[in-house]
Amino acid sequence: MNHPLSSSSPGSGRRVPIPVPVAVVVLGLALTSCTTTPAGPVDGRKSATTAVREGGSLVFGAEQEPDCVDWIATCGASIWGTYMLQAQTIPRVFDVRKKGKDWVPVPSAMMASDPVISTGARPKITYRLDPKAVWSDGRPITSADLKYTALQIRDGKNIFDKTGYTEIASVETPGPKTAVVTLKRPLGSWKGLFSGSYGVLPSHLLRGKDRTKLMKDGYQFSGGPWKLDKWVRGTSLTLVPNDRYWGKKPHLSKVTFQFTSDTAAAFQAFRTGQLDALYPSPQLDVIDQIKQGLPNASVQTEAQTGSLEALWMNNGRFPFDSPAVRRAVSYAIDREALVERLYGPLGVKQPAQSFNSPLVSRYAATDFSAYSLDLKKVEEIMTADGWAKGGDGIWAKDGRKAKFTVTTMAGNKRRELTEQILQTQLEKAGFAMGIQNTSAANLFAKVAPAGDFDLGLWTLVDTFPEPSLGASFLASSIPSAANGNAGINFMRARVPGLDPVLKEVAAAMDDATRRTASLKAERIIADEVPSLPLSAVPNVLLWNKRVGGPVSINPVEGPWWNLADWGRAE
Question: How far is the CA of 347 from the CAs of 41, 341, 359, 550, in angstroms?
Answer without folding.
Answer: 14, 11, 18, 25
